[in-house]
Amino acid sequence: MTDTTRRPIAYVTAPLRGEGLARLHELCEIVHEPWIEQQPLRIMNSDQLAARAAEVGATVLIVESDSVKGPVLDLPLRLIGSTRGDPNNVDLAAATAKGIPVLRCPGRNADAVAEMTVALLFAAVRGVVQGDRDVREGQTYRGGTIPYQRYRAWQLAGRTAGIVGLGAVGRATRWRLQGLGMTVIAADPFHPEATHSLDDLCAAADVVSMHAVVTPETKGLMGRAQFAAMRDGSIYVNTARAALHDIDALVDALQTGKLAAAGLDHFEGEKLAADHPLIGMGNVVLTPHIGGATYDVEVVQATMIADDVERILSGQRAVNLANPDVSP
């Protein structure tokens, strides 16, 4: 029988499932309280997390959105796992100063967000949401027209898609769009396979899809000049972050008909005001930041975290270490 008293206690608030979670149970004594299952929603600040982690005697923390700062880092932690690609909920400098390795999960949601990109693209191009509404409202012949009159559109096959940012999500989106018969070009100053500047990409693409990381340099990356450079009747999709575009410029491009449609999965402050111009645009598909909301993401991140927890507990170096200056 396994001697569980010698295993570290892990307090886990990240949603994990599958083989990775099972392996974590073998490595640690788990107290699993996924934030996503809490009613009402519970995402803890540092004081709350420190208190709960101390209460269960945790020496391993695995979180997704809880704040790992201040008093949390005063606990006797052997390691911290953040199931984010960029663990910005963790005070990395303080963790590093205390010699606590911090794990991360780069690319955990790449396939999920890439699928959402394709979903938004199809919905925007083919009028899926409006068509669904017509059927539900008994308005198949809305305004005395037939659906074929209202919903004619260009097919995606044979068109050019421009991907801005060739990170994990951008690459996962690329092969999916190629599979639809699209020619895919990319802009990314840090990736050798990206052959276009942003301005050249905007001018050449029928679809522009955003997958860049938000940095001081990329905030407002898509502005009036970039939307103006896009082809007349083109499509804009953003399943990354709203900070990457100038929303007023986007609204103007849609209102003038410069853009035929758009699909957006994120908004500043995580919501869009009820009276915002985008709300009333039938050619815009809006979703509430759900690109990564799949069970598969929870499986992937569980495996990534379990792999590195096992490495650290056995004295090896973690692969996905957010603070590489810390030794195992």
- CATH fold naming of the largest domain: Rossmann fold
Q: Low-confidence runs (pLDDT<50, min 5 residues)?
A: none
Computed Rg = 23 Å
What is the top-level CATH class of the largest domain? Alpha Beta
How many H/I helices?
Answer: 11
Q: How many angstroms does the end-to-end distance come to?
A: 28 Å
What does this protein structure show overall?
The structure is a single chain. By secondary structure, the chain is of the alpha/beta class. It has 2 domains: 125 residues, 3-Layer(aba) Sandwich (Rossmann fold); 177 residues, Rossmann fold (3-Layer(aba) Sandwich), CATH 3.40.50.720. It has 11 helices and 11 strands. It has a 6-stranded parallel sheet with strand order 7-6-8-9-10-11, sandwiched between helices. Strands 2-1-3-4-5 form a 5-stranded parallel sheet. Helix 7 links the parallel strand 6 and strand 7. Helix 1 packs parallel to helix 11. The two termini are 28 Å apart.
SSE layout and pairings?
Blueprint: E1 9-12, H1 19-27, E2 29-32, H2 46-56, E3 60-63, E4 79-82, H3 92-97, E5 102-103, H4 110-126, H5 128-136, H6 147-150, E6 160-164, H7 168-179, E7 183-187, H8 198-204, E8 207-210, H9 224-229, E9 234-238, H10 247-255, E10 259-264, E11 284-286, H11 295-313
Parallel strand pairs: 1-2, 1-3, 3-4, 4-5, 6-7, 6-8, 8-9, 9-10, 10-11
